[in-house]
Design goal:
CATH architecture: Sandwich
CATH topology: Jelly Rolls
Number of strands: 10
Number of helices: 1
Helix content: under 10%
Shape: globular
Largest sheet: 5 strands, antiparallel
Amino acid sequence: MEIRNFEFSGEGMQRIFDNTDWCVGIKNWKPANDITGISNLERHNKTDELFVLLEGSCTLVYANEENGKLKFDAVKMQKDKVYDIPPALWHNTITKKDTKMVLIEYANTSMDNSDIHDLTSEELDIVKSLA
């Protein structure tokens, strides 16, 4: 038996370790996570999702549903801190080109138990102002 190591340096997110319970991914900048490319929020309905900023800059934008509307907020991530996105919280990451994060989530997280919300132009203006 040996110690294994994993890496990913491409655009976007890649699961680098996956077992039957949980997975670890590397999430790098991609155009859809740039301030000029963001267009939606997602939520995972059955599991938490954890992020750790290793390099660069990331703003976690999130929204809670109140009276049929989304109420937005954001957190500017700090390096070496763990950020927990609880189940069913709408969220997305806004990153810059030099960003690298670790992502940890339940192995069975998929679009079967997640949702996407396409941002309206008004919501997009709010999200961009928070970033």
